[in-house]
TrEMBL record:
<feature type="domain" description="DUF6429">
    <location>
        <begin position="4"/>
        <end position="74"/>
    </location>
</feature>
<dbReference type="InterPro" id="IPR045489">
    <property type="entry name" value="DUF6429"/>
</dbReference>
<protein>
    <recommendedName>
        <fullName>DUF6429 domain-containing protein</fullName>
    </recommendedName>
</protein>
<dbReference type="Pfam" id="PF20008">
    <property type="entry name" value="DUF6429"/>
</dbReference>
Amino acid sequence: MEIDKEKVDEAVLALLHLTLHDEGRAWKSFDWETMNRLHEKGLIQNPVGKAKSVVFTDKGLKESERLLRQLFAKQL
């Protein structure tokens, strides 16, 4: 099976939004390859380090909320 990495990135970004805390930080509990791609796209700050959380960029914070609604919100 071939995996669409773009869809994985979108889902992970949306799920990161679920762990949002301290005005723009999220727990970084996803695989490093995906986290590095999100960093390269300018959506999160560099995930490498001892911190257990990662900081969203302004663009990433907005996009993560949009994707959370798009992918997981119940349609009324």
